[in-house]
Amino acid sequence: MGRGVSELVTGEAVVLGLRPARLPSRGLAVAVDVAVAWVTYIGISLILVSATSSMDSAAVAAVSVAAFVLVQVGIPIVIETLSGGRSLGKVICGLRVVREDGGPIRFRHALVRGAMGAIEIVMTMGVVAAIASLVSARGRRLGDVFAGTLVIRERMPVADAAGVALPPPPPWLVAELGALDLSRVPDGWWLTVRQYLARIGQLDPQVGGAMAGRLVEDLRGFTGVPGPAGVHPAAYLAAVVGERQGRESQRAFGASVSASSVAGPTGGGVGVGRGCCRWAAWRRW
Fold first, then answer.
1. Among 141, 143, 220, 247, which is least packed by CB within 10 angstroms?
2. Angle formed at CA 255 by CA 172 and CA 193, multiple of 5 degrees
3. What is each CA distance from 269 to 166, 228, 235, 239, in whole angstroms?
4. What span, in angstroms and rounded, lies between the C-alpha atoms of 80 and 113?
5. One digit per residue, pLDDT tens: the chain, 285 residues?
6. Cα 252 to Cα 81, 87, 88, 100, 213, distances in angstroms
């Protein structure tokens, strides 16, 4: 198992990898989120200046503090909860917050992270968070330690993709995925698929093929729709993950997302991109 990869063992006893985000990418994501939060706060403050002109100074101060807490703490907590651990900065940088066991976070995790973030990021200008991340073996800040969470990289760098080109899904499949009902697919299945695609290049071809087939059959049980004939199971899984990520981005941020796009280097490849959160998996079978 390479450096920087946290191990997770599936029910089939296959070791999958969680790739903790590095400090530079986390810092960039935080910088984007903080910048957006401050712009929002300044805009709200300008509105409050005129709206509270008739109030006394104590009331104005109370409203200002409430607005600051709402923008810097409350809104980030809501966004992380509704988007499954992805703020705007994390979407741009290809990061996600997950539990230590790799599962999706809930409100309580986002609440602890947000409360601690007010101290280690907002009040200390990120100094405490940076020091904690440098000391932690997995780059976790104090909010992650107390919440039992981990920030991981969802995008696979091309250099890490030791692998291979999966046959691209046909254009007609994109339209079918747009009509696929994914509401009954559990979070555990999505996690297993993401980790499978991230480690496919390190699996034995027969084992990897069998796992992909089982995952497609599991998906059929949740949706009632069988895997398309003539489409590589792993490529189909990658396309489905891309479809779901596009829907999540549209719900969370109102972004206009296009259908999954297929792109790759000269030997072929599958790159599932949706709007600003392009998720690529370059693999060799």
1. 220
2. 55
3. 5, 18, 9, 12
4. 10
5. 444 444 444 444 334 456 788 889 999 999 999 999 999 999 998 888 888 878 888 888 898 899 999 999 999 999 999 998 999 999 999 899 988 877 789 999 999 999 999 999 989 998 999 999 999 888 899 999 999 998 988 765 443 444 455 666 677 787 788 888 898 898 889 888 888 887 777 777 777 788 889 999 999 999 998 988 888 888 889 889 888 888 877 776 654 444 444 333 333 334 443 333 333 333 333
6. 10, 9, 9, 23, 31
Phi-psi region of 148 (alpha: psi -120 to 50; beta: other; left: phi over 0): left
CA 266 to each of CA 137, 166, 242, 282, 284: distance values in angstroms, whole numbers, following the listed order: 37, 12, 22, 11, 12
- The alpha carbon dihedral of 210, 212, 215, 216 has a sign of negative
Residue reference for tokens 């790739």 = 19
User: What are the tokens at 125?
Assistant: 């200008």
The β-bridge relationship of strands 277-281 and 270-274 is antiparallel
How is residue 92 written in tokens?
């741009």
pTM of the predicted model, to two decimals?
Answer: 0.55
